[in-house]
Amino acid sequence: MRQNLFSTAGAIIAALFTGFIDTARADGDPDRGRKAFLQCLSCHSARPDLHKTGPSLATVAGRKAATVEGFGRYSDALKASGLVWSDEKLDAWMLDPRGLVPGTSMNIPGIKSASDRRDIIAFLKAVKAVQSAERSPAPSNESGGSMMMGDRPMPDLEALGPERQVVSLTYCRGTYHVRTVAGQVQKIWEFNLRFKSDSSDKGPMTGKPVIIPKGMRGDRFFVIFAQPSEISPFIENRC
């Protein structure tokens, strides 16, 4: 029953998205835009419930700048700009963010391809149309909905197994020794280990950080805590 419900929801969203393509194609191609949006994914998502370094762009089309709910890292320059994200302003922003809003924290060289910019705008307008029609967050990958938006689901850090749950972290002469509940000890060069926090409902439990491998070579890691205040007390300087 649950699978059928998700499948039906996914089909409805796919139909809405496909129907919107015909109206948006004159200015850009939403399907091509979904692919072009991949270059934005390191900092943004197209899911209404997922902020990254930058805000979710699920409802950005036509919105006043610096007003996405739940995002608090806007630059003062953007908040004071008074911009409304029309097609023209979105195009100018993607081409040269600092040229449009001097002092912005949007630190990218810009998207030079005019066709990519048009297609991304068409995609964002299609995403907003879907959100407006549904009035609810995008469904999970089980229905294929969030993959239509181009985002991977955030892992549930609290649910990770004992091989990822950190019980101790010591530092000695440039090397971190990370011990897990499973009894494994990772010896990691200090340059290759980064500490992060995740206070969301997908984050780790308080006092129970987790270690996540990152990087192509398998030698870089994140240790993620529930709150920033946990980081320093957890690390023991001992050789």
TrEMBL record:
- Asked if the Swiss-Prot or TrEMBL record annotates the protein with the keyword Metal-binding, the reply is yes
- Taking every annotated instance into account, which residue ranges of this chain make up the domain Cytochrome c? 28-128
The UniProt keywords, alphabetically, are: Electron transport, Heme, Iron, Metal-binding, Transport
**Gene3D superfamilies assigned to the protein according to its UniProt record, in alphabetical order:** Cytochrome c-like domain (1.10.760.10)
What InterPro entries does this protein map onto? Cyt_c-like_dom, Cyt_c-like_dom_sf, Cyt_c_1A/1B
* Molecular functions (GO terms): electron transfer activity; heme binding; metal ion binding
Name the PROSITE patterns on file: CYTC
Q: Which PANTHER family match?
A: CYTOCHROME C
**What protein does this entry describe?**
Cytochrome C
Species this chain originates from: Hyphomonas atlantica
